[in-house]
């Protein structure tokens, strides 16, 4: 007998998460598309730019730890409100900056605010979806990061050409306040939501009866206990080795296509649109794959592991970019890698809710996210040095090719370490 799924309000909630994540990544992408303009305006070197990226990721790292803990205490509704208010103000404040140091400061403030997005979103999915749908829901909302990246090469050049670089920051930053109105109006925990039918609530809780929701979130598990669990370390590994690759894709790919293939970033560019469109397909496809395998009767851990492995394999061919000068071949290879990255993200977030109780989900997301952001601080140090060296010998493409080798291998290394730490991803016991 086919399982009945009464009601679909949970997907309305997931749509709110999708739009928040879209805005989150649109706001952080702006600086990458304005990089050539800002380099002329402020006289930046590649190392200067890497320091600005590091300021963002360092603040993002600390913020993930802070928001992960905070959201487990105050809940997603208030936590999201604080997060998007802070990052929207920071995004708009870029227009007021007149020094390189000032850019580093507002980027750090943006990173701090944006760090609340994923702890709040993953906790919301945990509250609103049964395990068999969580990877699909996570893939759907996480695809917003790719839609944000997809919109950026269209919106930012148009704003830059029409109104200047300051307006690009102000207009994109203000969008967050429109989302906040919808969030405050439409969101509430399932047990308190007036539009949620009893049948859908029962479906949401169908594999999670032992953890009822209340208005006041439970006290989160102490950090020292979380750090002592292999389940936490599996997520830390999965983020530390792979998040820096997405930061590279987000902050350097526009510059890569500009310097290697002479694309004009003041105009909308089809290559960048196609590259980031691959991420959208990967996010939804990766979540669908593991959810489909679970519905076919596969053990949850096995479905997640296979989905993560397929994702890692999709990133590997990016190494071959060094063997071709054809732009469209490079676009295809990078699009495939970004699709793999997005599919990985949809499943790596979901393993936390598979292995941890709801009262610990945001804290673990914050810890692992911090590890990923720390990697995102360290990786740009290497990127800036490599690119400045190869730029000095007029062969910057060779520098990018070296970086692509690291990108291609990092996901397989992460998968092997995760499999070693948690072979069957058993739920944590407190």
Account of the protein in words:
This protein is mainly alpha-helical and 430 residues long. It has one domain (10-204, 219-421): MFS general substrate transporter like domains (Growth Hormone, Chain: A, Up-down Bundle). The protein is 78% helix and 0% strand. It contains 16 helices and no strands. It has helices at 9-42, 46-74, 76-93, 100-114, 117-128, 131-163, 165-186, 198-204, 223-227, 230-240, 243-261, 270-295, 300-315, 327-355, 358-392, 396-421. Helix 1 (9-42) packs parallel to helix 6 (131-163), helix 11 runs parallel beside helix 15 and helix 15 runs antiparallel to helix 16 (396-421). The chain is globular. Residues 209-216 have low confidence and may be disordered.
- By CATH, the superfamily comes out as MFS general substrate transporter like domains
The name CATH uses for the topology is: Growth Hormone, Chain: A
Radius of gyration: 21 Å
Run of helices and strands: HHHHHHHHHHHHHHHH
Structural class by sheet pairing and helices: mainly alpha
E-strand count:
0
Number of domains: 1
Quote the beta fraction.
under 5%
Question: What do the pLDDT scores average to?
Answer: 83
Helix content range: over 70%
Question: What is the architecture at the second tier of CATH?
Answer: Up-down Bundle
Helix segment tally:
16
Give the CATH class.
Mainly Alpha
Terminal-residue CA separation: 36 Å
Shape: globular
Low-confidence parts, pLDDT < 50 over ≥5 residues?
A: 209-216
Q: What's the story with the biggest beta sheet? A: none
């Amino acid at each position: 007998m086919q399982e009945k799924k009464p009601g679909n309000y949970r997907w309305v909630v997931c749509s709110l998460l999708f739009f928040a994540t879209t805005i989150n990544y649109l706001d952080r992408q702006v600086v990458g598309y304005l990089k050539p303009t800002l380099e002329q305006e402020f006289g930046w070197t590649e190392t200067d730019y890497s320091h600005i990226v590091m300021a963002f990721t360092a603040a993002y790292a600390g913020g993930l730890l802070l928001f992960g803990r905070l959201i487990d205490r105050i809940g997603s509704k208030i936590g999201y409100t604080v997060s998007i208010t802070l990052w929207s103000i920071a995004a708009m404040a870029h227009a007021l900056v007149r020094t390189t140091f000032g850019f580093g400061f507002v980027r750090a403030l943006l990173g701090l605010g944006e760090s609340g997005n994923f702890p709040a979103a993953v906790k919301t999915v945990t509250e609103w979806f049964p395990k068999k749908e969580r990877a699909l829901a996570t893939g759907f909302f996480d695809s917003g990061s790719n839609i944000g990246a997809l919109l950026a090469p269209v919106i930012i050049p148009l704003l830059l050409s029409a109104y200047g670089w300051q307006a690009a920051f102000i207009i994109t930053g203000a969008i967050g306040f429109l989302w906040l109105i919808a969030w405050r109006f439409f969101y509430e925990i399932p047990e308190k939501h007036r539009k949620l039918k009893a049948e859908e609530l029962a479906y949401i809780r169908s594999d999670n009866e032992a953890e009822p929701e209340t208005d006041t979130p439970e006290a989160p598990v102490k950090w020292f206990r979380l750090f002592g669990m292999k389940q936490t370390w599996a997520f830390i590994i999965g983020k530390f080795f792979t998040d820096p690759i997405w930061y590279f894709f987000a902050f350097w790919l526009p510059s890569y296509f500009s310097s290697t293939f002479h694309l004009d970033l003041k105009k909308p560019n089809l290559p960048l649109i196609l590259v980031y469109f691959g991420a959208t397909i990967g996010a939804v496809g990766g979540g669908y794959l593991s959810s489909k395998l679970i519905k076919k009767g596969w053990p949850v851990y096995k479905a997640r592991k296979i989905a993560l492995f397929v994702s890692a394999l999709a990133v590997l061919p990016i190494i071959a970019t060094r063997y071709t000068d054809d732009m469209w071949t490079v676009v295809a290879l990078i699009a495939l890698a970004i699709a793999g990255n997005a599919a990985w993200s949809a499943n790596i977030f979901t393993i936390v809710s598979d292995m941890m109780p709801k009262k610990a989900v945001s804290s673990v997301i914050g810890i692992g996210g911090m590890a990923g952001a720390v990697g995102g601080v360290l990786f740009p140090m290497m990127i800036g040095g490599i690119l400045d060296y190869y730029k000095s010998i007029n062969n910057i493409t060779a520098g990018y090719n070296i970086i692509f080798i690291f990108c291609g291998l990092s996901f397989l290394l992460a998968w092997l370490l995760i499999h070693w730490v948690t072979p069957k991803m058993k739920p944590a016991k407190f």
